[in-house]
């Protein structure tokens, strides 16, 4: 056992001071609970143990007209720091599957007649990571308890002694297997993501560099080695299929921004992956969507589609090569193209497209899927495939997840085993496979019929999904890389002002784990997994 009392680091004593900027919108009382009582050995941690839902933006929110951004000495709009998740607590470190002694006198300086050791779990709005895996506590009513945990995590332990409550963390780790990729995907917006403080690409070069510096702090905090960007191509014509990517905000078409992003990542030791995706244009109508659905059953249309997509990917790959991008994913939802009954030539067309891309791009080339598929007969042409898991893949398993608003970590791990064993059967060992997780910090993963319940903040639910995902995947050697998405560029995930900014840009209940407890889960497991 290694007892640490380090001030101001993530591995030791940390001071909890929730700094909520006055003019911000979002949940007004996020992480606050005035009824909590201070206990010796830990400060009054705001929000801990409170299972009520955080409040929605209130009447005190300022409008964009009222709000005046603060500028620094260089004239740049200051980047908001986000809610502080620092807190003061004693941390003990140990290994999984070993007996770890917790001595009340040694840890807390407490000598008492009565002792009760218990594990504590997080509430919906707690801002600290507390593992949802259960620990075994031996001698729970003795001055020295012996705990054992099966899985890595940061566990919260409480000691009740002679009417007083003391609190500590147990960080349990192990030396895990090696991964060739540990990374994250950023959100797919490349300009202003809310109010003036949230512009990832300000015009002033010095301000732009400050924005990138802040954006890349997140990946570095969790030990990521790769970052991803997912620009979009938009259909502006269905038949014949034609796409455009001249939108700087959504398609990352600005060469200066692209070059600075890649260089900024490389300067910080991060590699870069670009993912291509296509979707309906912003002016797409229901008629357009219906026509697109119909044409996906037309073999002649697919022949034209592959012609179009090869031209697009070769052009984008040429730019990626010129700026030093390390890997590209040729399509985000590739299973839509696997139609042997409609277009049996699909495998040959993908092989031709991949070959054409390799003529202009020297980095790694892959494809993304929602699941492994036996129709991926051309996998030898690829360097890797990526498989993305969304919250809906879990909540749709009503046979294994009866209450999506209250998932248990055991239920999610059981679902993971079913899905991961399918991948192992289909593709295991054939080529590198990277797995991506996308789950929101919302209660029930937005499954509730009531819109108010659907928007309820639940940071711990995101933690449960993250813990289940990382824990389950460790035993599957075919998984050679892990990513999470879609990361906000900003530590301050809330937005303020008009309803559009709040509803569209706020990441409070969205998939970004940045500056939320799920970020700490990712950091812990990226420490467990070794780098190749």
From the structure above, extract its key features:
532 residues, alpha/beta, TIM Barrel, 8-stranded parallel barrel, 5-stranded mixed sheet, 13 helices, 21 strands, 28% helix, globular, disordered N terminus
Structure description:
This protein has 13 helices and 21 strands. With 532 residues, it is of the alpha/beta class. It has a domain at 225-382: Glycosidases (TIM Barrel), CATH 3.20.20. The strands form 5 sheets. Strands 10-11-14-16-17-18-19-20 form an 8-stranded parallel beta barrel. A 5-stranded mixed beta sheet has the order 1-2-8-7-4. A 3-stranded antiparallel beta sheet has the order 3-6-5. Helix 2 links the parallel strand 10 and strand 11 (226-229). Helix 6 runs parallel beside helix 7. The two termini are 28 Å apart.
Please provide a brief summary of the model.
This protein is of the alpha/beta class and 532 residues long. The protein has helices at 104-108, 205-222, 248-251, 255-267, 286-295, 299-323, 346-358, 391-395, 409-427, 451-454, 459-473, 499-505, 517-528; strands at 2-4, 90-95, 100-103, 115-120, 136-138, 144-148, 153-161, 164-173, 178-179, 181-186, 226-229, 232-237, 242-244, 271-275, 277-280, 327-329, 364-369, 384-390, 433-438, 479-487, 530-531.
Outline the secondary-structure elements.
Elements: E1 2-4, E2 90-95, E3 100-103, H1 104-108, E4 115-120, E5 136-138, E6 144-148, E7 153-161, E8 164-173, E9 178-179, E10 181-186, H2 205-222, E11 226-229, E12 232-237, E13 242-244, H3 248-251, H4 255-267, E14 271-275, E15 277-280, H5 286-295, H6 299-323, E16 327-329, H7 346-358, E17 364-369, E18 384-390, H8 391-395, H9 409-427, E19 433-438, H10 451-454, H11 459-473, E20 479-487, H12 499-505, H13 517-528, E21 530-531
Parallel strand pairs: 2-8, 9-21, 10-11, 10-20, 11-14, 12-15, 14-16, 16-17, 17-18, 18-19, 19-20
Antiparallel strand pairs: 1-2, 3-6, 4-7, 5-6, 7-8, 12-13
Helix pairs in contact: 2-4, 6-7, 9-11, 11-13
């Amino acid at each position: 056992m290694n007892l640490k009392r380090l001030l101001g680091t993530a591995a030791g004593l940390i001071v909890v001071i929730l700094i909520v900027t006055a003019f911000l919108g979002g949940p007004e009382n996020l992480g606050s609970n005035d009824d909590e009582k201070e206990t010796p050995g830990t400060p009054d941690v705001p929000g801990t143990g409170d299972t009520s839902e955080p409040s929605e933006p209130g009447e005190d929110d300022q409008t964009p007209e009222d709000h005046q951004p603060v500028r620094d000495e260089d004239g740049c709009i200051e980047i908001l720091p986000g809610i502080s998740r620092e807190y003061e607590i004693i941390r003990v470190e140990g290994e999984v599957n070993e007996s770890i002694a917790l001595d009340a006198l040694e840890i807390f300086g407490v000598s008492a007649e009565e002792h009760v050791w218990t594990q504590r779990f997080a509430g919906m709005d707690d801002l600290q990571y507390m593992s949802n895996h259960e620990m075994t506590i031996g001698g729970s009513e003795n001055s020295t308890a012996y705990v054992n945990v099966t899985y890595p995590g940061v566990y919260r332990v409480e000691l009740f002694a002679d009417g007083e409550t003391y609190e500590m963390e147990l960080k349990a780790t192990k030396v895990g297997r090696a991964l060739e990729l540990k990374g994250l995907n950023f959100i797919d917006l490349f300009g202003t993501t809310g109010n003036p403080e949230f512009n990832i690409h300000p015009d002033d070069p010095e301000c732009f560099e400050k924005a990138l510096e802040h954006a890349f702090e997140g990946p570095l905090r969790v030990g990521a080695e790769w970052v991803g960007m997912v620009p979009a191509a938009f259909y502006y014509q269905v038949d014949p299929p034609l796409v455009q990517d001249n939108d700087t905000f959504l398609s990352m078409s600005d060469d200066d921004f692209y070059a600075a992003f890649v260089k900024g990542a490389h300067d910080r030791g991060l590699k870069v992956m670009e993912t291509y995706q296509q979707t309906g244009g912003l002016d797409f109508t229901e008629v357009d969507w219906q026509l697109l659905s119909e044409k996906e059953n037309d073999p002649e249309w697919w022949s034209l589609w592959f012609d179009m997509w090869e031209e697009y990917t070769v052009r984008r790959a040429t730019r990626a090569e010129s700026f030093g991008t390390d890997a590209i994913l040729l399509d985000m939802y590739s299973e839509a193209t696997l139609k042997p009954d409609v277009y049996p030539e699909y495998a040959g067309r993908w092989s031709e497209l991949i070959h054409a891309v390799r003529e202009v791009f020297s980095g790694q080339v892959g494809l993304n899927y929602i699941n492994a598929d036996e129709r991926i007969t051309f996998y030898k042409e690829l360097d890797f495939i990526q498989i993305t898991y969304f919250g809906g893949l879990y909540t749709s398993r009503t046979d294994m997840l009866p209450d999506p608003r209250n998932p248990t970590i055991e239920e999610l791990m059981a679902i993971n085993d079913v899905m991961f064993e399918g991948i192992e059967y289909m593709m295991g060992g054939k080529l590198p496979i990277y797995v991506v997780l996308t789950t929101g910090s919302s209660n029930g993963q937005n499954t509730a019929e009531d819109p108010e319940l659907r928007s309820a903040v639940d940071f711990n639910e995101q933690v449960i999904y993250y813990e289940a995902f990382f824990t389950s995947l460790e035993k599957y050697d075919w998984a050679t890389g892990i990513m999470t998405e879609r990361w906000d560029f900003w530590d301050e995930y809330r937005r303020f002002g008009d309803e559009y900014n709040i509803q569209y840009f706020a990441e409070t209940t969205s998939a970004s784990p940045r500056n939320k407890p799920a970020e700490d889960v990712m950091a812990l497991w990226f420490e467990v997994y070794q780098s190749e």
